[in-house]
């Protein structure tokens, strides 16, 4: 029998901190009501907010120098689902997980869907992988996949993406996320125009196989592993691709995939305007695609992104329906703790953005009262909304303090016994 955190443990821990929490929630409620905000209405919105967890995030990641595996790491998709379910059990913010193929391949997807259901989690977007060669694969992706110079390689990559759709259908997913590593390392290595044509041609073939209610998310990335040019390098290229392929194609924003100093929230605003914002891969970044924990470096940027999202939702922007996912690599922390904290940081930014006094902000903007506009904006960001997040969790059966309950449960020590280390696990991103 594999260990699950008893719900009673959550109940006991919540009971112990209930008085202090009620006090904090009450105080914040009184403060917000002075500005006309009803705290329970905000809490209800936060409780309904969800962000998907990546199955590849529950294993310890690494760099190209080393990986330092932790005890009790997941050995395969069933273990990963258990960890994802634990994150959901404690935070109540992550009801779905996003699988990656071939890493999460099994022989019976009906059974996998049942296991997930039994654990209380569902499946989000499926991710294809043509940035590595799978064991036994016929043709190599060393020089590209969907935009490879050889048609046979492109066909193989297309077939893999179609297989991902077919698997996703069995799992209850309704979206395919495509990130390709295609690009070049040397000027002159490839024809910058032709590779884009090949990408479009391949993607159209995948698109033609999308079920009616499915969407395809195109993920751009500036560089890495290709260090001279990348085929889908930025949001402009991604938007061109989505618009030429069809209405079910849209652009996914991974926060780590931009040039330094780029104004990501403005990109988000533009994609919303075009009706092509697919959603997000949340993480934080200091230098590049660092895949650091969401909100650990620049929580203000995350807030600015959410300000655009709440604004779009408030004005009913057409086609606005973003998918929220975490995409991080945990090198020195327990991945479960990192993912719980990150899910809460995403919720925090959302909550803060809900607190922006939009009518007052609009008046200040119209009057060109720059300082007032900025102070109104900042006032929402500096509000400590932690009691709202805790209350949203508690109301849904989660923990007031998920990390404390997780540590008290000794979940990781239980898993270390149940899951003897295996070599070559697909966990994490190396
Ligand atoms: C990429 C990108 C993709 C993720 C892989 C593992 O940099 O962020 O979304 O699937 O990493
Ligand atoms: Mn990503
Ligand atoms: Mn990435």
Secondary structure blueprint with pairings:
Blueprint: H1 7-34, H2 39-47, E1 53-54, H3 77-91, E2 96-98, E3 100-101, H4 109-119, E4 122-123, E5 126-128, H5 151-171, E6 175-178, E7 183-184, H6 192-207, E8 215-219, E9 229-230, H7 235-245, E10 249-254, H8 264-273, E11 277-282, H9 299-314, E12 323-326, H10 335-354, H11 358-366, H12 370-381, H13 386-395, H14 402-409, H15 411-418
Parallel strand pairs: 1-2, 2-4, 3-5, 5-6, 6-8, 8-10, 10-11, 11-12
Antiparallel strand pairs: 7-9
Helix pairs in contact: 1-13, 2-10, 2-13, 3-4, 3-10, 5-6, 8-9, 9-10, 11-12
Bound molecules: beta-L-rhamnopyranose and manganese (II) ion (2 copies).
Task: Walk me through the structure.
The chain is an alpha/beta fold. It is 47% helix and 10% strand. It has 15 helices and 12 strands. It has helices at 7-34, 39-47, 77-91, 109-119, 151-171, 192-207, 235-245, 264-273, 299-314, 335-354, 358-366, 370-381, 386-395, 402-409, 411-418; strands at residues 53-54, 96-98, 100-101, 122-123, 126-128, 175-178, 183-184, 215-219, 229-230, 249-254, 277-282, 323-326. The strands form 3 sheets. The chain has a 7-stranded parallel beta sheet, covered by helices on one side. Strands 1-2-4 form a 3-stranded parallel beta sheet, with helices on one face. Strand 10 (249-254), helix 8 (264-273) and strand 11 form a beta-alpha-beta unit. The two termini are 31 Å apart. The chain binds beta-L-rhamnopyranose and manganese (II) ion (2 copies).
């Amino acid at each position: 029998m594999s260990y699950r955190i008893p719900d009673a443990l959550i109940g006991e821990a919540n009971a112990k901190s209930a008085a202090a929490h009620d006090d904090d929630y009450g105080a914040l409620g009184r403060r917000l009501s002075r500005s006309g905000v009803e705290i329970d209405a905000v809490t209800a919105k936060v409780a309904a907010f969800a962000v998907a967890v990546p199955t590849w995030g529950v294993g310890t990641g690494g760099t190209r120098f080393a990986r330092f595996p932790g005890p009790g790491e997941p050995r395969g998709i069933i273990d990963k689902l258990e960890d994802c379910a634990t994150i959901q059990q404690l935070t109540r913010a992550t009801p779905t997980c996003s699988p990656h193929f071939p890493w999460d391949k099994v022989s019976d997807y009906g059974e996998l869907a049942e296991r997930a259901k039994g654990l209380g989690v569902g499946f989000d977007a499926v991710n294809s992988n043509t940035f590595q060669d799978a064991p036994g694969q016929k043709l190599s992706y060393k020089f590209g996949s969907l935009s490879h110079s050889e048609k046979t390689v492109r066909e193989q990559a297309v077939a893999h993406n179609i297989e991902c759709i077919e698997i996703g259908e069995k799992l209850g997913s309704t979206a395919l996320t495509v990130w390709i590593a295609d690009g070049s390392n040397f000027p002159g290595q490839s024809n910058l125009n032709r590779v884009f044509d090949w990408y479009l041609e391949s993607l159209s073939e995948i698109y033609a196989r999308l079920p009616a209610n499915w969407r395809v998310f195109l993920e751009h990335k500036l560089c890495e592993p290709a260090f001279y040019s990348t085929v889908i390098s930025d949001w402009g290229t991604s938007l061109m691709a989505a618009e030429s392929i069809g209405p079910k194609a849209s652009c996914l924003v991974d926060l780590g995939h931009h040039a330094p100093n780029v104004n990501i929230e403005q990109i988000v605003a533009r994609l919303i305007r075009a009706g092509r914002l697919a959603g997000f891969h949340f993480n934080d970044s200091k230098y590049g695609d660092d895949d650091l924990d969401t909100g650990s470096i620049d929580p203000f940027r995350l807030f600015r992104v959410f300000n655009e999202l709440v604004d779009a939702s408030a004005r009913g922007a057409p086609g606005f329906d973003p998918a929220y996912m975490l995409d991080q690599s945990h090198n020195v922390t327990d991945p479960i703790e990192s993912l719980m904290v990150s899910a809460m940081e995403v919720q925090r930014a959302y909550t803060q953005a809900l607190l922006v006094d939009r009518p007052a902000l609009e008046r200040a903007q119209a009057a060109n009262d720059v300082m007032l506009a900025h102070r109104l904006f900042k006032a929402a960001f500096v509000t400590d909304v932690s009691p709202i997040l805790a209350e949203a969790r508690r109301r849904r059966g989660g923990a007031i303090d998920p990390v404390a309950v997780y540590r008290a449960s000794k979940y990781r020590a239980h898993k270390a016994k149940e899951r003897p280390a295996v070599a070559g696990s697909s966990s994490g991103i190396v």
